[in-house]
Specification:
Helix content: 25-40%
CATH superfamily: Transposase IS200-like
CATH architecture: 2-Layer Sandwich
Number of helices: 4
Protein backbone atom coordinates (compact mmCIF):
# COMPACT_ATOMS: atom_id res chain seq x y z
CA UNK A 1 0.00 0.00 0.00
CA UNK A 2 1.53 3.28 -1.09
CA UNK A 3 0.81 6.15 1.26
CA UNK A 4 0.44 9.70 0.06
CA UNK A 5 2.08 12.21 2.34
CA UNK A 6 1.19 15.87 2.47
CA UNK A 7 3.75 18.61 2.97
CA UNK A 8 4.06 21.75 5.05
CA UNK A 9 7.14 24.00 5.06
CA UNK A 10 9.31 21.60 7.10
CA UNK A 11 7.01 18.63 7.57
CA UNK A 12 5.80 15.59 5.66
CA UNK A 13 2.63 14.21 7.16
CA UNK A 14 -0.24 11.76 6.83
CA UNK A 15 -2.77 12.21 9.64
CA UNK A 16 -6.15 10.62 8.92
CA UNK A 17 -8.99 10.23 11.39
CA UNK A 18 -12.39 8.55 11.46
CA UNK A 19 -14.70 10.87 13.42
CA UNK A 20 -18.32 10.36 14.50
CA UNK A 21 -20.71 12.67 16.37
CA UNK A 22 -24.42 12.93 17.08
CA UNK A 23 -27.14 15.57 17.48
CA UNK A 24 -28.28 16.29 21.05
CA UNK A 25 -30.14 13.35 22.55
CA UNK A 26 -29.37 11.45 19.32
CA UNK A 27 -32.53 12.83 17.75
CA UNK A 28 -33.21 11.56 14.25
CA UNK A 29 -33.51 14.95 12.57
CA UNK A 30 -31.16 14.87 9.60
CA UNK A 31 -33.29 13.96 6.60
CA UNK A 32 -33.48 14.94 2.92
CA UNK A 33 -32.75 18.66 2.47
CA UNK A 34 -31.10 19.12 5.88
CA UNK A 35 -28.85 16.12 5.23
CA UNK A 36 -27.55 17.67 2.00
CA UNK A 37 -27.14 21.08 3.60
CA UNK A 38 -25.17 19.69 6.54
CA UNK A 39 -22.82 18.01 4.09
CA UNK A 40 -22.16 21.37 2.42
CA UNK A 41 -21.89 23.13 5.81
CA UNK A 42 -19.16 20.71 6.88
CA UNK A 43 -17.17 21.01 3.64
CA UNK A 44 -16.69 24.79 3.88
CA UNK A 45 -14.74 24.91 7.19
CA UNK A 46 -12.69 21.90 6.04
CA UNK A 47 -11.66 23.71 2.85
CA UNK A 48 -10.87 26.89 4.79
CA UNK A 49 -8.49 25.08 7.18
CA UNK A 50 -6.93 22.85 4.53
CA UNK A 51 -8.52 19.73 6.00
CA UNK A 52 -9.29 17.07 3.40
CA UNK A 53 -12.72 15.48 3.69
CA UNK A 54 -11.84 12.02 2.37
CA UNK A 55 -15.17 10.34 3.08
CA UNK A 56 -18.37 11.36 4.81
CA UNK A 57 -21.92 10.25 5.51
CA UNK A 58 -24.74 12.17 7.19
CA UNK A 59 -27.15 9.65 8.73
CA UNK A 60 -30.47 10.48 10.40
CA UNK A 61 -28.95 10.51 13.90
CA UNK A 62 -25.17 10.79 13.48
CA UNK A 63 -22.33 11.81 11.17
CA UNK A 64 -19.31 9.81 10.02
CA UNK A 65 -16.31 11.56 8.49
CA UNK A 66 -12.82 10.54 7.46
CA UNK A 67 -10.61 13.60 7.59
CA UNK A 68 -6.97 14.27 6.80
CA UNK A 69 -6.01 16.95 9.32
CA UNK A 70 -2.72 18.88 9.08
CA UNK A 71 -0.56 18.45 12.22
CA UNK A 72 -0.74 22.19 12.95
CA UNK A 73 -4.37 21.61 14.08
CA UNK A 74 -5.59 19.35 16.85
CA UNK A 75 -8.48 16.99 16.17
CA UNK A 76 -10.54 18.66 18.91
CA UNK A 77 -9.99 22.09 17.33
CA UNK A 78 -11.19 20.89 13.92
CA UNK A 79 -14.20 19.01 15.32
CA UNK A 80 -15.11 22.01 17.49
CA UNK A 81 -15.04 24.28 14.43
CA UNK A 82 -17.11 21.86 12.35
CA UNK A 83 -19.74 21.33 15.04
CA UNK A 84 -19.89 24.99 16.06
CA UNK A 85 -20.13 26.52 12.63
CA UNK A 86 -22.58 23.92 11.32
CA UNK A 87 -24.86 24.33 14.39
CA UNK A 88 -25.05 28.08 13.81
CA UNK A 89 -25.89 27.56 10.13
CA UNK A 90 -28.50 24.88 10.89
CA UNK A 91 -30.35 27.17 13.30
CA UNK A 92 -30.12 30.14 10.91
CA UNK A 93 -31.61 28.16 8.02
CA UNK A 94 -34.01 25.90 9.95
CA UNK A 95 -35.51 28.01 12.73
CA UNK A 96 -38.12 25.33 13.54
CA UNK A 97 -35.32 23.12 14.90
CA UNK A 98 -34.58 25.66 17.65
CA UNK A 99 -37.73 24.54 19.46
CA UNK A 100 -36.35 21.00 19.81
CA UNK A 101 -32.86 22.00 20.96
CA UNK A 102 -32.07 24.18 23.97
CA UNK A 103 -29.62 27.03 23.64
CA UNK A 104 -27.42 27.11 20.58
CA UNK A 105 -26.45 23.46 20.78
CA UNK A 106 -27.50 21.28 17.88
CA UNK A 107 -24.77 18.68 18.47
CA UNK A 108 -24.19 16.61 21.60
CA UNK A 109 -20.99 17.21 23.52
CA UNK A 110 -18.11 14.98 22.59
CA UNK A 111 -17.29 12.79 19.61
CA UNK A 112 -15.64 9.50 18.67
CA UNK A 113 -12.25 9.57 16.95
CA UNK A 114 -9.95 6.82 15.71
CA UNK A 115 -6.76 7.03 13.70
CA UNK A 116 -6.80 5.58 10.21
CA UNK A 117 -3.87 3.50 9.04
CA UNK A 118 -3.68 0.38 6.93
CA UNK A 119 -7.41 -0.16 7.48
CA UNK A 120 -8.33 2.93 5.43
CA UNK A 121 -10.19 0.96 2.74
CA UNK A 122 -12.26 -0.86 5.37
CA UNK A 123 -13.21 2.39 7.09
CA UNK A 124 -14.13 4.07 3.80
CA UNK A 125 -16.36 1.10 2.95
CA UNK A 126 -17.92 1.19 6.43
CA UNK A 127 -18.75 4.91 6.09
CA UNK A 128 -20.17 4.52 2.57
CA UNK A 129 -22.42 1.65 3.63
CA UNK A 130 -23.37 3.04 7.04
CA UNK A 131 -27.14 3.05 6.54
CA UNK A 132 -27.16 -0.50 5.17
CA UNK A 133 -24.97 -1.69 8.07
CA UNK A 134 -27.37 -0.15 10.60
CA UNK A 135 -30.39 -1.73 8.93
CA UNK A 136 -28.75 -5.18 9.05
CA UNK A 137 -27.77 -4.73 12.72
CA UNK A 138 -31.35 -3.82 13.64
CA UNK A 139 -32.68 -6.89 11.81
CA UNK A 140 -30.24 -9.13 13.72
CA UNK A 141 -31.18 -7.70 17.14
CA UNK A 142 -33.75 -9.74 19.01
CA UNK A 143 -37.06 -7.98 19.61
CA UNK A 144 -36.68 -7.10 23.30
CA UNK A 145 -40.15 -5.58 23.54
CA UNK A 146 -41.84 -8.99 23.10
CA UNK A 147 -40.17 -10.37 26.27
CA UNK A 148 -39.85 -7.38 28.62
CA UNK A 149 -39.17 -9.36 31.82
CA UNK A 150 -36.88 -12.06 30.47
CA UNK A 151 -33.30 -11.86 31.74
CA UNK A 152 -34.09 -9.29 34.47
CA UNK A 153 -34.15 -10.22 38.12
Amino acid sequence: MVSQSNKLAHTKWECKYHIVWIPKRRKKVMYEKLRLEIGRMLRKPCEYKGVDLLEGKVCADHIHMMLSIPPKYSVSEVVGDLKGKSAIMVFERHTALRENFRGHSFWARGYYVNTVGFNEADIRDYIRNQEENERLEEEERPDESSKPFEGHE
